[in-house]
Each structure stands twice: as structure tokens, then as C-alpha cells.
Amino acid sequence: MTGPLHDEMLLARQQRRPHYLITLAATCGSVPRQAGSKMLIYPDGTTSGTIGGGKFESLVLAEALALPLHSLPVLKTYPLHEASPDSFGAICGGEVTVLIEPQMPSPALILIGAGHCSRALATLARTCHWHITVLDDRPEELLTFPADERLTTPATEYLATKTWQPREALVLLSRKYQLDRSALATALRHPGMAYLGMIGSQKKVRQVLAELRTTGLTDFTPLRAPLGLDLGADHPNEIAISIFAEILAVLNQTSATPLSIT
Question: Which CATH class is domain 108-251?
Fold first, then answer.
């Protein structure tokens, strides 16, 4: 697959934009387009490319949008002739089989702060093929940070304009509590992330929340702070496991309880 549609699909993946990839997997007889033709459908109903247009394409559009983005691919055959009881009135005379592939972006981790625990968490998440974005005002700390995006943009500015996609986790791990406090305030005012966590002692968490209450913020429901599961973790790598395990539990909507039956 090459050409503008291929470039658009790559861009959608880079931008972590959910979509459905539609392919004419097989054709028989007279049909508007040949096997291999493709189009993209976005969750808001916009499309790019075409597999034939008309009533047939509108049916495929509806079929795709009815599928959850986490669904497995679907094959469906559409008769374009009057002989089939499933015909929708087309008179081309042929038949097409369509492959509908939901394209859910990989989970993403947005890290505020590029310190030791953040680096360990990013390294762990990358082994699971997560998309990593890190923000820090120290360019030297970003040079070797294991991330797909390394930004010196202020966290408040980034979060105020962020459009959240499914399965995105925001973790606040700044070197100064004031940085986490400002980022948390912005995140709470621009919700939508699947997970929100802040590192720190109970004393730090209480102080940050107390200071935010003076600004009018009162609902901290999405926040997990101090973040992570109680694993007795001490080393940054152990802390990363504790945090990542909690993120997985939240995104997968599980209890994170032991699986043992004995």
C-alpha cells in the first residue's frame, strides 16, 4: 500500500488517532472497485478514500462505526445483485467481501518529569510497546530519555490543550512538588485521561491537595496519589513496577488482587 491514503494512515497512527481500515478483500463479478481498494473511517464518521461509494459504502460505514475500537477484525460479504435475499437494491451484478479492521492506538504514557523513577517507568512501558511522551524543562535530561516524544513545553501549557485518546495515562513525577501541583491543577481542569497519578509522600499529597482547594478545586476523584501498588518498592525500578502495575489495573478495569486460589 502506497500513496496518499497510506501516508494518512501512518500519520493517524503517529498521532494515535483511532480509525477503521476498510479493505475490499475479495470481489466477484461486476463491482465498483477491485480487490485491494481501501478507505479509512474515523469514529466521528469522516472518511478518506473510497471502496465504491453509494449505498454499499454507507452500509460499510455504519457497520464499522457499530464496532467497538477494541474489536477483532470483521469480514462481511455484500451482494451487489438482486438474486440474494441480502441484497440492498444494488444492481452491479457482483459481490464484495470487506475486511473491517479497527485500529486502536497503543496505550500511551505521558510523563511529567524526567527523573530516575520516570526513566525507569518509561523503560518498562516501552517493553510493552507503549507510546511514551515526556515533558521536562531540562533539555540535557531528555537527550537519552527512552521516549517517542521529548518535550520542553511547560506541562501546564501541554495539558491545557491536550486532546485525550483512549488508554492514555498521565503520571506526575516532577523534581519539585510545585511543578506537580501546577500540572495536577491543569489536568483536573482538563480531564479525559484514563489514568492520573502523582508520586510523592502522603505529606506531599496532602499539601498539594490543600493548596489546590484554595484555588477552588474540590473534586480529586480521578487522582491516585501517592500512586502505585503497595509492593514495598524502594529502588526506582521497583517503584516503576509498582506504578505500571496500577496503571494496567486501572486501564484494564481489574482489581489487582492476587490470582492465587490457595
Answer: alpha beta
